[in-house]
Amino acid sequence: MKHLNVINDEKKAEWVDIVLFLSNIDHLDINRVQSWSHQFANITILSSDMISNYALPKEIRIVCYDSAKGRSEIWNDIVSESNSKWVLFLEDDEEFDADELKKINNPEPDKWIPARVIQFGKNEKRRQFFQMRLVPGLGKDIYDGVDLPDATRFITENSIQLSGKTLEICRVSDPVIHVNTDDEMALSNFSPQLYLVAGYRLLEEKKFAYAAGLFRTLLKKEKLLPFDRLAAVNGLASCYTEQYKWKKALALANESIEAEPQQFLPYLIKFKIFQLNKQWNESLDVLTLYHEILSESGYSRSNYEKFISLEETVTQLANLAIKTGLRKAALNFYEELFSLKKGNVDHTLLNILLVLSIELIEYEKSVFYFKKIFEEYLPDRLSEEKNQQLNDFLSMFMVNGWYDYPSEVYDMLYEQESENGEYRRRLIVTLSKTNRLDRARKIIVQNM
Predict the structure, then answer these.
(1) What's the pLDDT score for residue 295?
(2) How does DSSP assign 379-447, residue by residue?
(3) Lowest mean pLDDT among 4-13, 35-44, 191-200, 211-220
(4) pLDDT, tens only, 332-367
(5) Rounded to whole angstroms, what are the CA distances from 374 to 342, 367, 431?
(6) How far is CA 27 from CA 69, 354, 356, in A?
(7) How far is CA 371 from the centre of its chain?
(8) Within 13 Å and on the Cβ side, how many CA atoms surround 159?
């Protein structure tokens, strides 16, 4: 997760009020709030609990809200009374890049910047949610809903444009776990995003027909923000995938990509279908596109987005390249994986890298990966298994006509263990092949 840069000597930004909504006092991080206070003049904490005993900077405003009220109502109250031109709402454990927000510096009032809320899970798994968190202090209600604040109606009715820029907000906790769909649907002005919350929950519960019905209902609505429409299309495609309606799923995934190439889930849907059908070339092609977008932009323009990590992506690509016989591409992907892991990889991957490098006549790479595998064992820590592996790899070197490096290795091993006939024999061969016949003869005579 991103952390805030503390800058003491810069002028504090006054155009925005940073509002932290706490659903539970346990989420209050004093250091985080103090770091914000170094860069922003206006900070408000919303809490249903008393927090007077906490060592907060005195200029930070504390507002105690009525826990019987929903978030939308509470946030609307803040927007209505704010003296700042803009208000940024944050929740619980969320963090953001303060420098990036300061660069935005008082955006256009009729062109709002959406927030990309990134939830970080275990094993680098991530989810992305689009929400309107940065809103102008207009003195009027912006949000509909109960605990799912949604500005769709206000944006569409007032011809508000959405900026191509986004503000990234990071968190660990689930941003919609608190949403009670029954309470939300009891309102006449409930949030369109509620269909996404309910639909994706049903999808996780494997109730695919019910989830598909909600996504179809949402897609019939005219007043819908673009990232929510994409999420509904992708949700419906996911339902079709799980129901083995692969032709429909692929058609929707292609439709989604055509509407907005910079997203992830439709590519992953296509990848899953191609994998299930053992269409390895198609799998490789679509995952390559996913990899390019993930590497270049790192984010999607769709709501309710799911990611597989760059590391997992590259691993899958390398394996697919092997399956499709693209060994050069496989080497490139495995090397990217090596780089992503900063060289901290197991010997299985190193062995693959070495074999591919040798097969593809990449001499310098072959020597590099050989050293990575064997340096810690040379010259006197080779087990019987490791010794056999060393001989096998160096034999592959020699098949390529590379005798110089094997000669260096066997020279070192022979010096350490001159009674080893295997080392002696192999050293003599490599010396002969590198025109060092005098040295080869000397060793033969010494051992007669």
Answers:
(1) 93
(2) TT---HHHHHHHHHHHHHHHHTT--HHHHHHHHHHHHH-TT-HHHHHHHHHHHHHTT-HHHHHHHHHHT
(3) 4-13
(4) 999 999 999 999 999 999 999 999 999 999 999 999
(5) 18, 10, 21
(6) 19, 49, 50
(7) 32
(8) 0
